[in-house]
Amino acid sequence: MSARYADHPLQSGEQAPNIVLDAISSEGKIALDDFHGRSPLLIGLFRGLMCPFCRRHVATMAQLGPALREKGIESLAVVNTPVERARFYFRYHPIPGLLAASDPGRASHRAFGLPLLEFTENETDWPYKVGMDVVKTMRVDRPGELPEPMDPATAADLLNEKDGYELTEADQQVRIPGHMQLIGHFLLDREGVVRWSFTEVEEKPWNVCQALDPEELMSAASQVAH
């Protein structure tokens, strides 16, 4: 693992760090340097599988995989879930073609500059702190899954109940009370340089728990593939 941690989300034109993580979808390790000079890479850095939004984001990445591979672009999903717990989950919820890795220490998130967000009562200093008064005004909309747009915490509870996802001791081990890891997608070219990103770390917290725009991603992918 690279010792260099970014103090801001990596932007277009910045070099991504090398990351070495435990593979979920196979034995052994996965390193970003494995792709260096070989193919562009879309890397998704997510919270643990206990996050229902992240489970959906991972599935979306996998669905976009064939179209990305047609452009010569590989995909890697990184989750905070411990590797054995993640392997158990995907054994019963398989996603064909998914390349995934485990990072329970969230070192990859720090290396890409994704902050650990602290929840407060009413103090907001985005993206490091957010007041619950602000959180309650945020809305996540998932037509067909949620009865109406609602705040992320209420939506997460409903989706976890819908999915029948039960927290295990391994899930609890990576939880940080009063905090939430912000997440993001980064599209790297063959040399490991960031060319596009979509993160929860925007000027205002309206991207939290939201899915990326597939059309925007594929447009960026077309540029990277050339």
TrEMBL record:
GO molecular function: antioxidant activity; oxidoreductase activity
PROSITE patterns membership: THIOREDOXIN_2 (PS51352)
Protein's name in the database: Peroxiredoxin
Thioredoxin domain: residues covered: 10-226
Organism expressing this protein natively: Rhizobium giardinii
Domain of life: Bacteria
Taxonomic lineage of the native organism: Bacteria, Pseudomonadati, Pseudomonadota, Alphaproteobacteria, Hyphomicrobiales
